[in-house]
Amino acid sequence: MRLPLLTALTGLALIAAPLAASAQTAPAAGAPAAGTASGLRIEANQIRAKQLMDRDVYTTDNTEIGEVEDLVVDPATGRIVSVVIEVENRLGLTDKYVAVDLNQLRLTPGERRITIDMTRDNVRSLRGIAYKD
């Protein structure tokens, strides 16, 4: 009695293993693909907000001027309207907040810095915005 039962359980395990593995790797019909939200994929030319937030911002003349504080999104289009940058003074204290277009920023892959297409003097001359966190 033991041998046939053991043989049957072993055979069942051999049949069930591939089925369980395929069920885990293939999403159910209508389900989002793995690693995506709502079935959408992050394309190679797209960036996540997390990749921008709190990143150090450097000018084209290689001066650290502050960090990305916030993203302003137009709810009608879902697009980023501007990026809020906390501009710091020489002591590292907040001097002002400015808003710039996203296309003025460049990410350096593999680095924790973002470069703004302006010099330090250009950024300092920008008019500050009223911003409360």
Largest sheet: 6 strands, mixed
Overall geometric form: globular
Radius of gyration: 26 Å
Give the helix proportion (percent range): 10-25%
* Low-pLDDT ranges: 1-27
Class from helix and strand fractions:
alpha+beta
Task: Give the CA-CA distance, first to last residue.
Answer: 72 Å
Overall average pLDDT: 76
Secondary-structure element series: HEEEEEEH
Strand order in the sheet with the most strands: 4-3-2-1-6-5
Task: Give the helix tally.
Answer: 2
Number of strands: 6
Q: Which strand-content bin applies to the residues?
A: 25-35%
Folded structure, characterized:
With 133 residues, the protein is α+β, with helices and mostly antiparallel strands. Helices cover 23% and strands 29% of the residues. The protein has two helices and six strands, in the order H-E-E-E-E-E-E-H. The chain has helices at residues 2-25, 120-125, and strands at residues 56-58, 64-74, 79-88, 94-100, 105-107, 113-116. The chain has a six-stranded mixed beta sheet. The radius of gyration is 26 Å and the shape is globular. The termini are far apart. 8% of the residues are buried.
SSE order and pairing:
Elements: H1 2-25, E1 56-58, E2 64-74, E3 79-88, E4 94-100, E5 105-107, E6 113-116, H2 120-125
Parallel strand pairs: 1-6
Antiparallel strand pairs: 1-2, 2-3, 3-4, 5-6
